Amino acid sequence: MSDITIDALDKSFGRTRVLHEVSLAIASGEFIAVLGPSGCGKTTLLRCLAGFERLDAGSIAIGGETVSSPRGHVPPERRGVGVVFQNYALWPHMTVARNVAYGLKISGMAKPARDARVAEVLGLVELGDLADRRPADLSGGQRQRVALARCLAMESRVVLLDEPLANLDVHLRGTLEEEFARFHARSGATMFYITHDQAEALALATRVAVMDRGRILQFAPPEQLFREPACETVAGFIGEGRVIAASDLAPTGDGRAHASVLGHPAALRCARGERPRPRARVSFHPGDLHMVPGAQGIAANVLRATYRGAYLRTEVMAGPAGDVPLTLNIPAPASLTQGQRITIALRDGWVLPDRAAS
Amino acid sequence: MGGERGLLIALVLFVGLLSIVPLARLAWAALLPGGSFDAARIADLLGNRRVVEATVNTIWISVASTLLATVTGTLAAMLVTLTDMRARTLWVFGFVLPLMIPPQVTALAWVQAFSPASPILGPMGLALPPGTRHPLYSMGGIVFLLGLYNAPLVFLSVRASLQRVPSSLVEAAQAQGARGFAVTRDIVLPLARGGIFAGAALAFVSSIGNFGIQAMLGIPARVSTLITLIYRRLNSYGPSALNDMALLALLLALLTVLGMALTAWLGRRGDQRVDSARRLPRRSLGALRGPVEGLAWLYLVLCLLLPLSALVGTALVRGYGQPLNADTITFENFANALFHHEGIREAFATSLWLTLATVAVLIPVSVALGYVLTWREGWVARVLRLASELAYALPGIIIGVAMILFFLRPLPLIGTGLYGTIWVIFAAYLSNYLALALRPILGGYAQIERGLDEAAQLAGAGILARLRDVVLPALAPSAAAAAILVFMTAINEIQTSVLLVSSRATTIGPMIIFLEEAGSSTLAAAVGCLMVLLVLILMGLSLLAGRHLPDGVLPWRD
């Protein structure tokens, strides 16, 4: 089993508190992404999992065995954890085959068995022809596959990935994302993927943990993060979300509610236990705003419209006082000029739970 | 972590036994001989007329020669990095070369070049009339030679600084209307200030601890410095003077540390850490290029070629002062030095195996220590680093006194003392050169990505397997450079071994002083020539391997 339990983990460097009561329960074989801006502590969390950093408080258990706690620390070499480093950390003086074989050699596997295993693994990642090349002679994508092959060869039950696509150009990323998905399907390993790119996280992971300033803000499947953010920070981080004030919230009991947004009634989604309250915060995405004909809706002044191909990205000042900046996508062809008055409607939105609304 | 902890303990023992404990023993002997603090003794000793005189001389000599070295070195660095001077690589090699020549050989060469019996100036009719006092046997002579000797240290430091100044800063000043000289004065030099003062600190440390030049010129000139005072007292009184000499050594250490602190304070905020892909543009010297290049090469002729050819000239005649011509030329001195003179042969053999053993121990230790210093945090790593740096920065003679004190008494397990044996010199070398070996290796570590080691750790490799399989292959060029640096410095070493040599164990470094003192100038010159030749061969070898090295590891490579 390779489930991971992180319990109330604390970690400071000097006086800076980098991780603050981080708790995550990850099932065996899950693909988890940790998403957060740079400096949020996500790399430190990965290094704690790999065993490169010791904990100040809390514990980490892999497959039921406690590997890290302030009292005990299993060194990285005995955790059976694989890591794909940001720049892959391939040993430049070894060939591809020797890079993959090194861990097996250290573990004392006999040469014939080792060679067979390396050949098999390199075949799986389609690098059999390049076994005798040096890392310097490989392309970015091939290097990544060597790094993955290294984890495959060791049969790592847990694979940690530290922003493996951050240094690559956009064209490569899509292909390499698929590579990770295939690796996950093939190995069945528990994957722990660190990134600051939400598109990557949402596309790859079964569940995403959003981190900020050393805390986990929300840990949920991608669609739930998008549709039901737990707080303003998550709402603002995922999919260009916006949060604005609403008044006279009236839940209807089935996870839906009515409220007044910018002076107009709107139908919203909310938690099932939501109570009526005079003030609330509503999160939505540009796609939830629509331009409507006539004057029935929220009045808005066009600030700027940018042509984006399939749609016009339009920034407006909306509301009764015209002081709330909003962004919406208006399907092309359309022509908008600066200062033009339009009417918009909010078709969907999520009422942020009360504790996070403050 | 078990393997790592074992390694750390071994490193702490190594540095502790070879650097920290002997230096602590020195401080103990200096301040608390017999276990009690005796202020009257200390005041008496430090108030002694000869000690005061030597202290004042030491300060004056090291400060003045540091100033000379700083001006010369900075000018040379500006010439090489900022102008369109031609044949730059060759000139840099020539300018840095004196740094690699043992100071006692340099002193001997200069003494012979400017003596009334000069083999070079004599035939040209420029030599001083016989009977005149030798101009270099004076305070001014010592300052002059030390200044020239240490100028390459400042040069290397300033050049590294200048190469980090981004060209955009200069271009911005030019866009504001600043021209040639103003740009240099207002932009370039202030940005290089850190490098200038770092170089000055190195020159100061090197001057104050330079035994070769201070002894070769100072003893005949009766200009006493702390180093020569300690050397002569220990020579005449033996171990009975040890406690007093420990106090003087401590005073010398204090002056060294004060000088370093002062230059560090003057150069504070100096390191701007500005890096850019584009280096400073070289400015055209225009019509001045010819004359400036002429002056630069004249400097090399005067400071390198003249003394070295005097050395060769002296080595090639039978008696000191004979004119060199077809009748007098002889290779007898070289033959004697290489094959017949038993003392020299043994000293050379001793130096050779001592140096090889030092390299063989220090390189693996430095690789392991570099690992801890680069990739592990904590106070232990910091203490280890400080201790090794201190043992390197302090004048070698202090380590020498500390080693005598430490090894004078019989060792607990062996039952006999090591004093007077080769092993004391060995211990002193290990202590002295750890930091020298460490520096290029740390430079090598800075270029290794830490993930490479961590990936091997995840593959299950223990610390020793990682050092062997992952770190060492990546570090090999830097380790080779470290080995060459240590070899070159230790093979001709004089500052430490001059105190520790005995009839049973002599090294080649002090041999020149002994030969010169015994009146065998021609033989001393031959030995000096052989030392320079050895240095040149090693530098040449290192240049062959230089392509694989990180920048700045070999100081003589432009």
Automatic annotation (TrEMBL), chain A:
This is Iron(III) transport system ATP-binding protein. InterPro entries: AAA+_ATPase, ABC_SmlMolc_Importer, ABC_transporter-like_ATP-bd, ABC_transporter-like_CS, P-loop_NTPase. Transmembrane segments: none annotated. Belongs to the ABC transporter superfamily. SMART domains: AAA. Pfam families: ABC_tran. Keywords: ATP-binding, Nucleotide-binding, Transport. One of its GO terms (molecular function) is ATP binding. Signal peptide: none annotated. PROSITE patterns: ABC_TRANSPORTER_1, ABC_TRANSPORTER_2. It comes from the Bacteria. It comes from Salipiger thiooxidans. Residues 4-238 form the ABC transporter domain. GO terms for cellular component: ATP-binding cassette (ABC) transporter complex.
TrEMBL record, chain B:
GO terms for cellular component: plasma membrane. PROSITE patterns: ABC_TM1. Gene3D superfamilies: MetI-like. Residues 55-263, 348-542 form the ABC transmembrane type-1 domain. One of its GO terms (biological process) is transmembrane transport. The keyword Cytoplasm does not apply. It holds the Pfam family BPD_transp_1. The keyword Repressor does not apply. Its main location: membrane. Keywords: Cell inner membrane, Cell membrane, Membrane, Transmembrane, Transmembrane helix, Transport. It is a multi-pass membrane protein. The chain crosses the membrane at residues 59-83, 90-115, 135-158, 195-217, 245-266, 287-308, 352-374, 386-408, 420-442, 470-491, 522-545. It is found in: Cell inner membrane; Cell membrane. Belongs to the binding-protein-dependent transport system permease family. PANTHER family: INNER MEMBRANE ABC TRANSPORTER PERMEASE PROTEIN YDCV. This is Iron(III) transport system permease protein.
